[in-house]
Specification:
This protein is an alpha/beta fold. It has 2 domains: 214 residues, 3-Deoxy-D-manno-octulosonic-acid transferase, N-terminal domain (Rossmann fold, 3-Layer(aba) Sandwich); 190 residues, Rossmann fold. It contains 19 helices and 14 strands. It is globular and about 65 Å long. The N and C termini lie far apart (49 Å). The relative contact order is 0.11.
């Protein structure tokens, strides 16, 4: 047996990493002070509780929290006598939960995967059932749920080939952990096949919860308002969910573009980078405004770049824009979710690196909702070509809507999977 092929060695490694864990919290807090709030929760100490039966969903960060919206709504409607508990790992995920769900749910940080912290969490909330979303495999948490007879399901599961190879390095640990889960439901057949190889158990296919997101009406109205502020009518290019290193590439390419009246909206993926991205924009001499400082009903005619430094307005940005680039894909970071853009009927451009969302990306490209580019220069050239071809933009937007609508239904399947482990259903 190799060193880390069992949970005991895994736990020992976690203890050895504890000083790094604390240092990591401090380091992240330098740019995002929220990391130093609720530290006790990360070790199983909680101040909130429920006197109702608890349904627990783990939504790591912003993407998972937003993807769970339809599932949260369905569970609330079906189980009004239960309390929904959302656990998060990042402050941005927690903030997204507050914005989306308000006081309708409890929200805390999931404890680090130390056995004592897991025991505290499970003893405090006593969930009737737990749901892990996407690829959240925490071996002591899984074992803790098994020991306390809490059904724990892995839903909306995705596992890229790269991640599968990493888990395969520790076959016994991975197999034992996955087998201890009550049920696994994957997004795609390919995800299910990889999880089946690692777990040795049957894995169902439920689709992707992200397809069930409905653009809120108020966001659509806000997008139309933002669009109206950009007068006279200007072409709008959105760079959505950009990651570190990508903004510099985009800005350098934009310096050589000649698209009359172009307004570029850049929305960094992580809010702690807003100031950094502003410095990059100003260093290159672009005239810019920040969305948070937009206190009038018009965008200055000379503004070339709008920095989208607001939270929770991505649907509005998509609605306002003529074409959108989905970040995390120009560099080998795996890409971000393009489904929200498609659901708004916004034509999509995507870079070469999309291993985190490979199936959805390939489907979108195949049906004409998205185009792939290889670098920032090609991206800007393609933006220019599309902005001069209204017919192509309309066709891509219509394809995006069909693509999003054709893949709905994961929420219903997820709810049906959870239902046998809950009581008092209507």
């Amino acid at each position: 047996m190799r060193l880390f092929d069992n949970r005991y060695a895994y736990t020992l490694l976690l203890w050895l990493l504890l000083p790094y864990v604390l240092l990591h919290l401090w380091w992240r807090a330098r740019r995002q002070p929220e990391y130093l709030r609720h530290i006790g929760e990360r070790f199983g100490r909680y101040n909130v509780r429920s006197d109702k039966p608890v349904i627990w969903l783990h939504t790591v960060s912003v993407g998972e929290t937003r993807a769970a919206a339809a599932l949260v709504r369905a569970l609330r409607e079906r189980y009004p006598d239960h309390q929904l508990l959302l656990t998060h790992t990042t402050p941005t995920g927690r903030a997204a939960s507050e914005q989306l769900y308000g006081d309708d749910v409890l929200r805390v940080y999931l404890p680090y995967d130390y056995p004592f912290a897991v025991r505290r969490f499970l003893r405090h909330f006593r969930p009737q059932a737990g749901v892990l979303l996407e690829t959240e495999i925490w071996f002591n948490l899984i074992q803790g749920c098994r020991d306390t007879k809490v059904p724990l399901l892995l839903l909306n599961a995705r596992l890229s080939e790269r991640s599968a190879r990493k888990y395969a390095r520790f076959p016994q640990l991975t197999r034992d952990g996955l087998q201890a889960l009550t049920h696994i439901a994957a997004q795609t057949d390919a995800d299910a096949a990889r999880l089946k190889v690692l777990s040795g158990k049957e894995v169902s296919v439920m689709g992707n919860l992200k397809f069930d997101i409905e653009p809120p009406e108020y966001q659509i109205e806000l997008g139309e308002t933002l669009r109206g502020w950009c007068k006279p009518q200007r072409p709008l290019f959105l760079a959505a969910s950009t990651r570190e290193g990508e903004e510099a590439l985009l800005l350098d390419a934009l310096q050589h573009v000649n698209i009359e009246g172009l307004l570029t909206i850049i929305v960094p993926r992580h809010p702690q980078r807003f100031d950094e991205v502003e410095r990059l924009i100003r260093q290159r001499g672009f005239r810019m405004q920040r969305r948070s400082h937009w206190d009038s009903e018009t965008c200055d005619a000379g503004t070339q770049i709008l920095l989208g430094d607001s939270m929770g307005e991505m649907f509005a940005y998509y609605t306002a824009s003529d074409v959108a680039f989905i970040g995390g894909s120009l560099l080998p970071l795996g890409g971000q979710n393009l489904i929200e853009a498609a659901a708004c009927g916004t034509p999509v451009l995507i870079g070469p690196h999309t291993f985190n969302f490979n199936d959805a990306t390939e489907q979108a490209i195949a049906c004409g909702a998205a185009l792939r580019v290889q670098d920032a220069d090609e991206l800007i050239r393609k933006v220019g070509a599309l902005l001069q071809d209204d017919s192509a933009l309309r066709q891509m937007g219509a394809c995006g809507l069909r693509f999003a609508n054709a893949n709905r239904g994961a929420t219903e399947r997820a709810t049906a999977t959870v239902t046998p482990f809950l009581t008092h259903s209507r």
